[in-house]
Amino acid sequence: MNPLPIVIRIPAQADYLDIVRAALYAIASKVGFSYEAIEDMKVAVTEACTNAIRHAYEERGGWIELSFLWDNHELRITIKDDGRGKEEIPTQHMTRSVLHQSPIADVTVGGLGIFLMEALMDEVHVRSENGTEVVLMKRMSRNEEMV
């Protein structure tokens, strides 16, 4: 598959999440991810999009842009919005070590989405500057079975 990104822009509404999941399935199966890996990615991407829908725009509406990039046995999925975001997300990079230094009881209500994304993906990066950008990465294991 060509290492150019596939970009999808959807309204920030839950009604459009099935389009995102269908596109993710098509892309991930085309490059050879297993059914289980694709299902994990669908959950993580849905969570990131749901966060954008719930927190970025409130009542005024907006857009979510998704970019899928396959390169060197890794699928990089970027979810961007230009909304205001959640107050709890730091303005710097959020890394796995920052999140896992705190007990799960200290996570704010609705803050488990990042933990879920990290459990399902190989890497998760969140940046909140002029909107929010979530980058999810999944590497192909050597023993992936084609869908």
From TrEMBL:
Alphabetically ordered keywords of this record: Kinase, Serine/threonine-protein kinase, Transferase
Name of one Pfam family that matches: HATPase_c_2
Keyword Lipoprotein annotated: no
Documented EC number(s): 2.7.11.1
Domain Histidine kinase/HSP90-like ATPase: from-to ranges: 10-137
One Gene Ontology MF term: protein serine/threonine kinase activity
NCBIfam families assigned: PRK04069.1
Protein name: Anti-sigma B factor RsbW
Source organism (scientific name): Paenibacillus paeoniae
